[in-house]
Amino acid sequence: MKEALKALLQTPRKWNIELQAILFMAIGLALIFLYRSHYRRTLENKEQARQVVEEYLRLSEAINAVEDETAKLNLSLAKLRTAADSVLLPDIENHILHLQEKTGQLSSMLPADDTNRDSLELFVQHHLEQAGLQIAQWQGARPARNTDTGRADEFNRIRSDLLDKKAADIHQLHLKGQAHDRRDQWFNFFISLIFSVVIILAVFAVFRGVKRDRKAEESLNHALEAAESAARTKEQFLANMSHEIRTPLNAILGYSSMLASTPLKPGQQEFAQGIETAGNALLAIVNDILDLSKLEAGMVRFEAIPFQLGPLLHSIGQMFRHQAARKGLWLKIHPLQDVPDVVVGDPTRLTQMLGNLISNGIKFTSRGGIDLWVKNIREEEQVAWLSFKVQDSGIGIPREKLETIFERFEQAATDTTRKYGGAGLGLSIVSKLAELQGGHIYVRSRENQGSTFYLELPYRTLAEGEGPVPSRITEMQNASSPPLPEGLKILVAEDNPMNQHIAGLMLGRMGVEFTIAGNGLEAINLLKEKSFGLVLMDLQMPVMDGYSASRQIRKLGFNIPIIAMTAHAMPGEREKCLSAGMNDYLSKPIREQDLLRAIQQQAPRQPAPPPEALQEEPVLEIDYDYLMEVAGGSKAALAELAGIFLSQAPLELEKLHASFHKQDLSNLATTAHSMKSTAAYMGMEAPLGQLLSQLELAARGDAPDGENLPLLLEKISRITEKALRKIREEVLPLCEE
Fold it and tell me: What CATH number does the domain located at 300-478 have?
């Protein structure tokens, strides 16, 4: 051991080197460990620092966003605070989270001595619940305690929007409260829903009192109703005015026409022509007013048929040439300039428009005359634009009136109406008719130098091989109506004596046999008794009007032509007549040539026989077995029963007629029921009792026989007369045996 230590001590240098190496290695390892630990801590610190920076930045952005939103909210709050409307924010249970009242209308609905805000919130909450404005209910099926149909509809609309995911929409709801003085107060709510996914959290509502708006709306509705009522009144007034004017006009023009056709002295002929001219002038004014009414009502319809302009213009010239000649004026229809032979359009409306322009020219011209030119100004895709130029040498139109001359009731000067007559409607009607056909009209004129009217209208031209050939069209336009059949008998249903006389004179000149009926019921009875070939039917008559009579004639199986002769000339009147079963329509005053043409077109070659069903009258039967049973086999009792019937039946029949004429349907039904019992006691259940039962049901409205009341009453009258006769002739002799 000693030797070893000694040896070691003897070698110090070698040991020191090894020890140093070990120490250096240990120190190096320690340094490496320390470095790695420090590096790891440094990395961790850097990550923490980065996270801190990122969090700082995120928080900074959030703070900025909050500041922006706060600014926006402050701005919105400022707007709300300065808004005139009130703001309401209830939660899902209708607890008032925020209530900002601006108008004071809510507070005014509380008792005067209660200004507590809690009371106001409770009041609002109560009315919201009463209105069904509860969010929890919106997520359910139906509003709570909501009996207002209109409000329920609004609720359902909002709920439907929710289900359609339109919750972000703004909804409008009208709610009504009642003030302490019992006055109604309406509120208009504009509602936006605050929700999370599909769960509604709250409601944001802006509301205002709309009492004034409601009053304005009600006033507007009343004004609208008043306007509609005024329009109906106007239409009824025009219809009545037309009827009341046309009825005497029919007599004036009819008599003057008849008078002018008889041998007269020159002075008398002039008087007759003057009456006819004045009547035609009045008729023209009435027609203009009615045409304007038709245009305003949109009732004007246009035909699209092929026609030739040449024959049409010739007929217009013939129509007005005599009128112009009486004033010493010429009327020239100049040759057509490059105009198609055949065009497709409405010849009747063209005649009306050109007639209006020519008539105006004659009216306002005292020297010279009127010229009419027609030329084709352009063609495009089978459409020809035709220009109708009507020039007169009359009084002309002042420059300041040129722009308004086509307006209603406008004339060139205030004294024009007094001097020349007319209502100032003719040009307005022409302008409107042209516009409705796709055309237009304009005028060039100088005062005291005449006027030139340019009417430009589009007409379709016929393609090659399309429609009838021109010669055929000429034949159609110039064809004469067929002659009247021999032995034609006409039934005239007319209540006015003058019109009856005029119709009789016209038909007499035609060589037609006629019969007059004073109302529709008389006409039906005459049809049952006699054979006629045609009916001339007035519309407005007592007892039964022309519409009801025509419908009854068709129901009874008559296939006889019916021509309406009426002073009614309002829009839709012709269609109304045709739908009632009539075949044609003539507007009063009736012109003889128009009546002749209508009869020629409608009259059958042979009179129509009455339907088989009407040729048999129900047989009156008396059940004598029942009658003797009621009388107990006693002749005295039978005589008493017969006496009661003979005295009561005429009185009850008279009551039936009186009730019908007064339109007292209740009394009519009661009397029919009483008379039915009387007939039953006399053993006359068939057919008298059955007819009285039908009359009772019809009068009470329990059977579809309202239009049959006159017929039933007439049939009951005839059967009752037979019954009275049978009682006298058959029953009373039994009492004396």
Answer: 3.30.565.10
